[in-house]
Structures are given as C-alpha cells and as structure tokens.
Amino acid sequence: MPMEPAEARESRARRPDKGDGSRHGRKRRSGRPLPLVTRVVFGTLGSLFLVLGIAGLFLPFLQGILFLVLAAAVLSLASERVDGWLFRLISERWPRLWKRVERIRTRVRWKFRR
To answer: What does the CA dihedral 21, 26, 27, 28 come to, rounded to 10 degrees?
Structure first.
C-alpha cells in the first residue's frame, strides 16, 4: 500500500472535519427552506434589481450600486449559492457588517415563513 506524503497528512490534520454540515466554518441554517413560491418571487425581484443596478451604472438618474446591493441581498434569500458567495465575500473582510446582514435576513426569513 503506497504511503501518503507527509504534507498531505499535515494539511488534512489542520482542517478538522466538524461533521455538522458546516461549510467554510459556518453552520448550515436550521429549519426548513422558504416555500417555492416565495423563492421564485425573491428570485424574480432580485433579478429585476440586478438589471436595474447594471443599468444604473451607466444611467445618471439611477443609483446602480444601491440596486446591486439590493439584488445581492434579495437573491441570497432565494439561492444558497448566492448566499455562500456573499458569505465568502463579506464575512472575512467585514465581520460586523455580516452579522448585521444575518440579523436582517433572519427577520425577513421568519416573516415569510409564517
């Protein structure tokens, strides 16, 4: 049986497997996902904000950055992929901002689950 290189064993030892389904050191959301209709509405609204944000980058009367931020926030509610992308982008640079975003998202999810 071939031996594993020492570097591979050490790197695996440095990355402990938590076994709790965490990704990037973050636990998965507990509870059930949003209903399909709500996710479709959020996805459509987020796509609209994305188009407005891109248009706003070129048109002087639209606030492009504002619509792009709104699009990212709304799409992160509809898609786990966008949520993971936002987590990687924001949490490492601005952890306090990410905590605020998570609080707001928790409130929104709670209201739309009722």
So the answer is: -80
| Cβ atoms < 10 Å from Cβ of 5 | 9
Contact 33, 39 (CB under 8 A): yes
For residue 75, which of 102, 29, 41 has the smallest C-alpha distance?
41
Number of domains, the chain: 1
Domain that holds residue 82: 35-113
User: Do the domain assignments include residue 69?
Assistant: yes
pLDDT, tens digit, for every residue of 49-98?
999 999 999 988 888 888 888 888 888 888 888 888 888 888 888 888 88
56 belongs to a structural domain: yes
Q: How far is it, in rounded angstroms, from Cα 16 to Cα 38?
A: 36
Q: What is the pTM of this model?
A: 0.60
Cα separation, 108 vs 77, in Å, equals 9
